[in-house]
Amino acid sequence: MLEVKNPLFLKFPQSQSIGSGAKAKFDCQFYDEIVNIQWLKDGVIIKEEENENMKFTAKNGKYSMEIKAASHSEIGQYQAKGVGRQGESISAFSLNVH
User: Fold this and answer.
1) Has this prediction a pTM greater than 0.70?
2) What sign does the CA torsion over 36, 42, 45, 48 have?
3) CA 21, CA 39: separation in Å to the nearest integer?
4) Residue 4 has what pLDDT?
């Protein structure tokens, strides 16, 4: 039987509570090479081109999502989903803006 291996997180994104207008940056890293990363808010994929307040980076196996100036509309449950060649792994975190 073929074993399916999901990518494993080396570093998980951490939940944050910040003041309105502050920057929030969420980082993650995987042990294994991943094919794609998706960032989700409240179960919906975030598209950078539809949100000028967010920036996504990928460099040397490290992945980041940055909210440049957080507002109450960014409050929610987020997920980082790493998709590998044989499976996927998800890490959940939250953002609270006060």
Assistant:
1) yes
2) negative
3) 21
4) 59
Collapsed DSSP state (helix, strand, coil) of residue 3: coil
Is 21 strand, coil or helix? coil
Alpha-carbon span 51 to 77, nearest angstrom:
17
* Residue where the block lists tokens 């940056």: 25
Amino acid at 54: M
Note the maximum CA span of the chain. 52
Q: Distance (Å, rounded) from C-alpha 35 to C-alpha 57? A: 14
Q: What share of the chain is helix, strand, coil (3-state, %, to 5)?
A: 5, 50, 40
With tokens 């449950």, the residue in question is 77
How far, CA to CA in Å, does 77 sit from each of 15, 54, 73?
Answer: 9, 16, 12
Contact in structure between 11 and 5 (CB atoms under 8 Å) = no
